[in-house]
Amino acid sequence: MCWNDCYYLRSFVADYYRDSSSGNEMELTVVRIIYLEKEELEMDLSISPNAELTLDSFCKWQASVNVDDISSPYHHDIAILLTRYDICSDNMSNCGLLGLAHVGTACTKDQNCGINEDTGLNLGVVVAHEMGHVMGCSHDAEDISGCSSKAEDGSYHVMAPYVHSHTNIWSPCSKKFMTTLFENDLGECLNDRPQETLYKFAEMLPGSVYDADYQCNMIFPGSTLCHQEPENICKRLLCKTKPDSCTTLGEPPADGTKCGENKWCYNLKCIEEGTRPDAINGGWGEWSDWGECSVSCGGGVSYCKRQCNNPVPKHKGRYCIGIKKKFRMCNTHPCPSGTKSFRAQQCSEHDSKLFNGKLYTWIPYYESDDPCGLYCINEHFFSKLEPRVKDGTKCRSGSRDTCIGGVCRKVGCDWVLDSDAVEDICGVCKGDGTQCKIVEEVYKDPPGNDYTKVIMIPKGARNVLIEELDPSENTIAISSADEKHFLLNGKHIEQLDGDYKMAGTQAIYSHPEPEKELLTISGPLQEELVFFVVFFKKENVGYKYKWSEPRSQISYLPRYHWEFTEFESCSSRCGGGIQTARPMCLEEKAGRVDESYCDPVDKPLPKTRICNSNPCPTRWKVDRWSSCSGCKFRSGVRSRSVTCVRDAAIAGEDDVVVEDSECTGVKPASKELCNSLRPCLKLRKRSDELPEDQTEEIYRQTKMPSHFDSKPMGFYLVTFKDFNRKLLQKMRKE
């Protein structure tokens, strides 16, 4: 493929993604073109007719050559391989494949890629199709996506399982798939606009680049366009294959094909050259009514949306820009006592589902690095049961912050998304901290025996904090006012970290460090509680306790100031990250209050410092074995990918492929002999480059032309084959 081919290919593919049927405003930009001549000698890349192995090799190679800095003009979001190998699948037994890609992996570092066989003019459809898979689209077939492969006007959808030159738009299913990708932040990496574009492309119609004779020659080698009336040229491409015979596939010529003096084909019609129907840019319609709340109590989310239908974009007009869905909090009233949290309900849904062949009882487990993943724990272990929790699930226990589309969104005490409103220690939203009395002490008495009473916590107390100042073998305990019924750590048993109900309100028990306890109770307490220290060892490391009590009148003048609290978590687990400490408005007795009480002029800038500067460790990453190439009476070989990777600095991101020399230990085997029960078949050997005298025979076998004087059959040019269905479902990232 030469430079000009890439030049025009981009224009063809960009036209599909710019079309309003995609349901999104997308612009295709080429940032780098790499011409490969000796891939196996010069780089760790293997390109062959084997589609699965080529895809695996290319995806890893493109990840290694990508520039991590998104502001670089050489950073790419999606990589495509163009090859003239006749790529095959199913252990090389089926060579009707034109492309292969992962599904829904646009922002997955080593899976944001696809391979494409260059068969000529239809390459633009193939590339758009494979990129569609990466963008989350399945094939358009009633039994796969639920959408037909054909549009109402008789043209084909981009994600049809077959390649057809008369392909114009995306199906409603593809629109939904791509929109879902963006709404769930699986396409977030595509949102940045390139700062610099090294390749400038003009917008060209394919027929204006490749004339009718060229198109005929690609379909029927040696043929040219048959003479016919200009008004018929745009309906189907008729090619002269013999002196007295014309043949067609029943397909129209490419848009832009000359159909008369100063005229060209556009959408099956012969119109003035250089013109197209006037583009109509889309406009947003009215917002819909708010939908049903995700939960019945405790604070969930509902959303409303709008359509780009005022007017509907037409004739390549621009799709609407802006948000199409907005959210708000709803049903914020407290839940009745004993109600399961929304996260707990989602964990319980897996109680009836087999996990590694067994049934378990699941309860929530909170993973601080991934607050919107559904992690659950049973009596033996914890596991991530779903990639993301349902919209409206709280990010953390005891927090208002809420997960929407897999992202933790801040929620203020006013129950407004992304609000900075905070509740003061008295429990007043945006309060000044003066409406209550603050009790704060440190228990440092000599160690007692067994369960030693520290203090009675009064009814009505809020924001109760009990903190062990240093690790110890002793524990804290909480009982009811009669000191007989223990709500935490009774009977000399230390309970698990988690949520507990105490005095009609929520309590969170945790260990910030091993053997160092922390208890918070939100309040207000509906009854008195008693705080104990259980001495298993004769030492008192100190226990801080703090809460607020209602006060009848203000007895002092509050004083406010800006102060830095603790540094936030490090941005990286290794390799050097940043920690930030942000200023908060504090009242000297009440603690944190709303920022409006502090002078904004005096507000300092956030502080930062380097953290976790230790290098990220490396390890051998071993993929699954491939299927065995052998059969029942013949041994074969199976292979797997073995790569040296460096752990990602940020939790949840992809590991980085590095040189094998950076890993320690013996490299695991990547190939081994194997046996298979698959019957041995006699397969016809197929050359990648057929002699010219065999070319016509192969075309008859795969393209099935129909003669002009018979009814046009509209056969597909080349099939993608059904193996894609099973493989892509397996690869699909739900």
From TrEMBL:
InterPro entries: ADAM_Cys-rich, ADAMTS/ADAMTS-like, ADAMTS_ADAMTS-like, ADAMTS_CR_2, ADAMTS_CR_3, ADAMTS_spacer1, MetalloPept_cat_dom_sf, Peptidase_M12B
Pfam families: ADAMTS_CR_2, ADAMTS_CR_3, ADAMTS_spacer1, Reprolysin, TSP1_ADAMTS, TSP_1
Cofactor: Zn(2+)
Gene Ontology process terms (BP): extracellular matrix organization; proteolysis
GO molecular function: metal ion binding; metalloendopeptidase activity
Compartments (UniProt record): Secreted
Binding site for Zn(2+): 129, 133, 139
GO cellular component, one term: extracellular matrix
Cystine connections: 59-113, 88-95, 107-189, 147-173, 216-239, 226-246, 234-265, 259-270, 293-330, 297-335, 308-320
Residues annotated as the enzyme's active site: 130
All copies of domain Peptidase M12B, residue ranges: 1-194
UniProt binding sites for Ca(2+) 1: 77, 189, 192
Binding annotation for Ca(2+) 2: 192
Domain of life: Eukaryota
Alphabetical UniProt keywords: Calcium, Cleavage on pair of basic residues, Disulfide bond, Glycoprotein, Hydrolase, Metal-binding, Metalloprotease, Protease, Repeat, Secreted, Signal, Zinc, Zymogen
Cofactor note: Binds 1 zinc ion per subunit.
The protein's name: A disintegrin and metalloproteinase with thrombospondin motifs 7-like
Native organism taxonomy: Eukaryota, Metazoa, Ecdysozoa, Arthropoda, Hexapoda
